[in-house]
# Entry
Amino acid sequence: MKRTPRNGTGWTIPNGVKLRYTAPMKSNRIGILTGGGDAPGLNAVIRSAVKYGAGTLNWRMVGIEDAFNGLLESPRRLRDLTPRSCQGLLHRGGTVLGTTNRGDPFSFPMSDGTATDRSAEVAEAVQAEGLEGLIVIGGDGTQAIGLRLMDEHGIPVVGVPKTIDNDLNSTDFTFGFMSAVETATEALDRLHTTAESHDRVMLLEVMGRDAGWIALWAGVAGGADCIAIPEIPYDADRFAAKIRDRRQKGRHFTIVVVAEGAAPHRGERMPTHVPHGQGTLRKSGAADTLAHLLTERIDVETRTTVLGHLQRGGSPVAYDRVIATQFGVKAVELIHRGRWGEMVCLSAGEVTSVPIRDAIATYRTVDPTDPLIAAARSVGIEFGG
# Structure
């Protein structure tokens, strides 16, 4: 197939032929993007990758705004990143590049409600911009998109794992997780004082649709009496029994942490639906569900708090700043060694890498036999199952 050079970097492809990216040889021009939900530490990764890539190796680092969307819009939304432009980012939450979880180029949402495959446009844009490859910072969805772009269009990709849920396989921790745990723990500390003052049962709902890591860690750190996680379907009777037992011992308040994906045993009757939106109904959240089930079993004053996106906001804690910095440096190091298709990870305290394909093969959920659950049960925390 005849290729015609365009702008000295990319190639024009005859109509009807699927574009396969052909990277400029060692252009040292690297794109970097953040995808999915925001998390504390994203800016720290960007900062370290740019300081090492541009500041030390003299590469050109190009920020792509709003995940892959920045490559699909006209004009393209790209910006040169330099060590100077990244000053002050280490402690800053969110992402200066912007992010979205509605930008899958293989199933891109259109204004008419349909979805279309625009992945070839991404490949064309990467080539037209003379990018040697991409650093893709995100969770399993973003990593899967990056891998598919590499498989189907030949775009070189290196992944950096990000999710506050800590549910990405092949890495001990993802940055953002510890910050979310710290936020949830602080909330529990505050709920303790008001719960004890009013003799209430206080339920705190935290993120964790499929994995209960935040609920588990924050529950242990915050002195929760009960923890409900997706991996252990609960029996509300056991939580009610825990509350009664505490009251009989003179502890008239109870703290319960509920992951948003936690649910009762299959077959247990769900409480009444609650109104939502205009004329629609949906089930109440996980904390409200458990609160309803508890009040059906025991006469206690119950309150729920949904922490929601507060877990994503604010400055990263020191731990997340440190591993985010290491992750950004490692991503550039992988590119320098030509190890495309790998994702940075933390394994037994060492920052290393694994094939992206292996990293996203399975979710990292909480094993009910996890040592932390065993320790929690040993100090009297009830899991409902």
User: Anything to note?
Assistant: The first strand starts at residue 4 and ends at 6. Confidence is low (pLDDT under 50) at residues 1-18, 272-283. The CA atoms of residues 342 and 354 lie 5 Å apart. The radius of gyration is 24 Å.
